[in-house]
Write a structure and sequence with these properties.
By secondary structure, this protein is an alpha+beta fold. The chain has one domain. Helices cover 36% and strands 26% of the residues. It has one helix at 9-65; strands spanning 75-76, 84-88, 100-102, 123-138, 142-157. Strands 1, 2, 3, 4 and 5 form a five-stranded antiparallel β-sheet that branches. A hairpin with a 7-residue loop joins strand 1 (75-76) and strand 2. The longest helix is centred in the N-terminal third of the chain and has 57 residues, at 9-65. The chain is rod-shaped and about 110 Å long. The protein starts with 8 loop residues before the first helix and ends with a strand.
Amino acid sequence: MNKRDEKGSVFILVLIGILIISILGISGLTKSTTEISVSRNFKEDKTALFSANSGINYGINELRNTVDPQSIQFQISGGDNGYSSYKSGKITDSTPQNVTGFLSFTPPPPSGVSLEIGGEAGVSLTAWNLIVSSFVSIPTIGDARKQIQTAVVLLSSEY
C-alpha cells in the first residue's frame, strides 16, 4: 500500500464522527425543548385550576356575606402573577354571571348535621349553583381555562 492512497480516509472518518455527534446533540435539544413546553403547559393548567378554586372560595364568602345572593356576580382580574383571572359563570360567558339558586328541589341537610327547622325558627336551607371559570394567559406562549361548578347550601332567614 502506498501512503498516497490513504490521504483523506482520516478526514472522512472525522466528518462521520462529527455528523453522528451533531445528530445526537440536535435530538437532545429537541427533547429538552419538548419537555420544557410540557412543563409550562402543566404549570398553566394547575394555575388555572387553583385560580378557579380560589374563585369558588371567594364566591362562597360572597354568598355568606350578602343579603341577596341571587344578585352576586364577580370578576377578579390579574391574580398574584398578573396573568390569571376568574369570574362567576361558564367559560363561554363573556361577562360575569349572577349566581343562581337551585329552586327545583329542597337540598338535603349536610351529612353529619341534624337540623330541625320549624316555622318559628324563621330560617330555611337554600342551595346555590356556583359556577366559576378561570383563564390563564401568558403572551406568546398560550392559555389555559378551567371551570368548577359546585352547590353551596346556606341557612337563610325567611324575612
